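anyone seen this seq b4? input:
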Amino acid sequence: MSAPKLTAGLFMAIVLLISADLRGDDAEIARFEKRLKLSKLSDHMVCGGAPSRADLAFLARSRGITKVISLLDPSAEVEEESAIAKDLGVAFESRPLAIGLDGPLDKARVNRDVARSIIDEIRATTDGTVYVHCQSGRDRAGFMRFAHRVIVDGWSFADALNEAVEGGFSPTKLPGFYKDMKLLVSELDELPKVKAMPIADNDLHAKQTTANIGAQSLNVRLMGEGSPVYVIHGGPGESHKMFRPYLDEISKTNKLVYYDQVGCGGSSKPQFAEAYTLQRQADELEALREVAEDEKISLIAQSSGSLIAMKYALAYPDRVDKMVLVSGWASAEEFQKYIPLLVSVMAESDHEKYDWLIGELRKAMRGPNDRELMALVGLQLPGIFFGEVDDAFRKDWLRHAEVSSFVNIVMDKEVFRTVDLRPELSKITGIPTLVISGKFDLITPPPIAKTIADGIPGAKLAVFEQSGHFPYVEENRKFIDTIVGFLSGSGAASE
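predicted toks r here
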């Protein structure tokens, strides 16, 4: 659909109204801004749809427009607009942003050079306001809002994407636009492929040893020698398989202790909800340390496992040597903000499967069983990683993604809805702490990691530039080097 035709009279309105003393009440301005889906991104940039004559009168008066940039595809209308603007002395440029919007939407892409050049120009503007003329407030305008938030305002990828989605932009309908958002921020020409690290089934799934703690038993795998490093998995309800063999190399310098929490993997599975709280999980870690007779331990915790690690550090500070918190959160309130993003970036076919399964569960008025929860995890994988996830990686990853729906469901309220450790973070003193976040993590983006790093005295924050929720998978070499350096005290994370 082409943009509404701009007439000579419309552009004349710009020229005349820059100096005119016209009046309009707040209600009229509000209606005008809503109709155009107008976004003021800076003192010198306004983005919105094609205005009518009356709309542009308001726009010129209230925004001091000195230039119009059209993001629409080349057309006779755009050429006419350019000629009219030239005759009237109004600056006008045509800079087509989208590629292929006239065809299937899932094939459309963005000219990232155009987007960046516009943002750079606006950033350098000190006089007047540029109106970036979009056909819709949802596609081109959504991308430009996103670009401005990241490049100029310094927002995180997840926050800028969240605003675009709330404004109507759909990564599901425009996956090429979403890909170009990643490429724009990363400054790459192509996204890397997420690669699996080979491990045989008999190694991945084999039970090695059992540690008895009270009435329960934990499935434990020990590797290497040296200062003990305990790895705490997330979920809640996953298992230590999520880390293998990606963290195995740490066993070259340390005793690496993988274990499955109670209710997970190969450990005991009590079927009463009271067995599953963050404090009980911290206490079971302490019981495991006692059984292993390790005087002090270092912790590597990922996702919701970071809550267990922080709980443990608060309850047993004298037992913690160093602590690494990966893709974690301290506040359910912060975490809740980003939950819708994973669904919003699903491929259309995956979105349909997701909606169908969620609908079936709602009709049955129950939560998912293990198999169904695994299916939901599989559908969300493309949004969990920064790089491209193909069928081969998805199949391999699901070998690791063992999950207990019972544990996940009974811990849902505490972990995802009510927990707030922010007031207690300052009590974690004397424990060297490294907080790691993936720049493109849509679940626990860098602002959430920064909350933890700012709250724990002396904690350092490391942001992995080409990672999502699992930096130890996407940037494994950098991750291992960072962890080993931190644990040995020979390396420092750069903030």
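The chain has two domains: 8-186, 201-334+412-488. Residues 1-24 have pLDDT under 50 and may be disordered. kinda curious what u guys think
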